[in-house]
Design goal:
By secondary structure, the chain is mainly alpha-helical. Helix content is 45%, strand content 11%. The strands form two sheets. A three-stranded antiparallel β-sheet has the order 3-5-4.
């Protein structure tokens, strides 16, 4: 017998109301003792219904799972309630460093500092503390610690996987000219790469969520 005596949509809603992070359809199917295909179809139907009804929340598939999120058009009201009118921001330094990790991962601190042209230790400590990046083994040649982005990063950016990261090419118009001269990609690519990362969280395309404030002591910029 199914764990829940009620309809599957209601059972899914009850679970999704209490989760703290996206939960996979596989786990939901296991917990409710329902076929995976039925659970997945119901989740997608619920997501479409919430959109059609114009609800203040929606159901999204991000970071390998499903979770309720407030809709982007209500972000101002949510921010005012949660932050009392104060908007939390990512610093430019944090965005640049996060972009380097996202596009070059796994990558060492030394390589990140080389790309940005400044020491990144302080920013990396902040990103680690906030759960946006994590350690991922060591580099064979140098034994330097390598870093990669986390599932929490995907969730905050509203991405299902790293494959959905914006392409760098549109933000590097000079790349072909440089390669034609026999040079590699410019080391300053991170500043440009930070723009699509900022937009993916700022516009509410997927999350509509409020960014965490990364206090690394550097100048704060709007995102």
């Amino acid at each position: 017998m199914p764990v829940s005596n009620g309809p599957l949509p209601a059972a899914l809603e009850a679970i999704l109301m209490v989760v703290q992070e996206p939960v996979s359809e596989h786990l939901l199917a296991e917990v409710l003792d329902r076929p995976l295909a039925e659970v997945l179809a119901t989740l997608r139907t619920l997501a479409l219904e919430y959109t059609a009804q114009g609800r203040g929340f929606d159901l999204r598939e991000v970071a390998g799972g499903w979770r309720f999120y407030s809709r982007p058009e209500h972000a101002a009201a949510v921010e005012r309630f949660v932050l009392d009118g104060r908007q939390s921001r990512l610093t430019q330094a944090a965005l640049e460093t996060l972009a380097v990790v996202a596009y070059r991962q796994p990558v060492s601190r030394g390589r990140i500092s080389s790309v940005r042209g400044v020491n990144c230790d302080g920013v990396m400590r902040t990103l680690l503390a906030r759960g946006l990046v994590e350690e991922y083994g060591v580099e064979y040649e140098t034994q330097a610690t390598l870093y990669r982005t986390t599932e929490f990063f995907l969730e905050r950016m509203g991405l299902r996987s790293l494959d959905e990261l914006p392409e760098l090419a549109p933000f590097l118009p000079e790349i072909e000219a440089l390669e034609a001269e026999g040079e590699g990609p410019p080391d300053g690519f991170a500043t440009r790469a930070a723009s699509p990362l900022a937009r993916s969280g700022d516009t509410g395309r997927d999350t509509g969520a409020v960014h965490a404030d990364l206090d690394d002591g550097e100048t704060t910029t709007e995102v």
